[in-house]
Amino acid sequence: MIVKFDGKDIKEMRDLPRVVADTPVGKQVAVQLIRKGKEETKTVMLGRLEDGEKQAGAAKQDPAVENKSVVKKTLGIELSNLSDDLRKRYKIKDTVKGVVITGIDSNSPASDKRLSAGDVIVEIAQEAVSNADDFQVKIDKLKKDGRRSALLLIASADGELRFVALSLQ
Length: 169
What we know:
This protein is of the alpha+beta class. Helices cover 26% and strands 35% of the residues. The chain has helices at residues 15-21, 51-56, 63-69, 84-90, 109-112, 132-144, and strands at residues 2-5, 8-9, 28-35, 38-45, 70-74, 77-81, 99-104, 120-124, 127-128, 149-155, 161-167. The strands form two sheets. Strands 5, 6, 7, 8, 9, 10 and 11 form a seven-stranded antiparallel beta sheet that branches.
């Protein structure tokens, strides 16, 4: 279990990819871990993630892309407007339209519903979603109307559709 990376505490599993992503390639860092009940410190050199590994680790976020494109975080979902960079990063087909999920809070209802980075929100309450601000406006309206959940139409990167009911509580 990794408890510190480059002097930064790792309190939750999702903290590690963010800290690693913020660390430059080629830097040697100390990693403090607990193995078989004993605390150890190892030194590792960060390398560049190869294309095959990128697909497996698609939930990891590139901080440069994240800072420019993440527009909203709501209901435990980090959203971005679709861009060519994000389409390439998550291998999203050109025919898929909507708002891309770039991150999920592991303690949120969205995580429970198996939403993940790279999924695209196409509709909310049977209305098309064109950008992250639009999504937030629709969520706020549903809450104002006293709705307890929202029906989302989700597209996978290859365009496969599914419905997900997400709690607004």
